[in-house]
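Worked example 2:
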Amino acid sequence: MSEVLSSAHVFRFPKSEHLCLSRDIEALFEPGSRSAAAYPLRVVWRVVEAKAHEPSAKVMFSVPKRHFRHAVDRNRTKRQLREAYRHHKALVSVPSGKCVHMAFLWMSHHLTPSAEIEKKVVNLLQRLNETLHEKS
């Protein structure tokens, strides 16, 4: 039973892993950040020093209103992104003492099936992990 609980614990996406502070979000989009794209997604990230009791990765998801006028479509897409990230966040291993801030940005005007979004998120997370470890 504890094995089931521990494996379920890996797939959580608690509030502490959400990138919420406006100063962190602004810093993410300043020069010095890196990005990669896998249409219809783009990920922007920045490696920062980890604070005490901070998770190794903090994430935000953005689906612009200009791409989807209806809130239900934006919410559906963000839900798909969160779910794909939640299942595959273990693909990113951050060096100790560091934290990576990420933003997943939606670039398409079309709704996309969850399986395709999941493939793109996995692709971006693998590329992110490679760049994190080639610097070390």
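The radius of gyration is 15 Å. The first strand starts at residue 34 and ends at 38.
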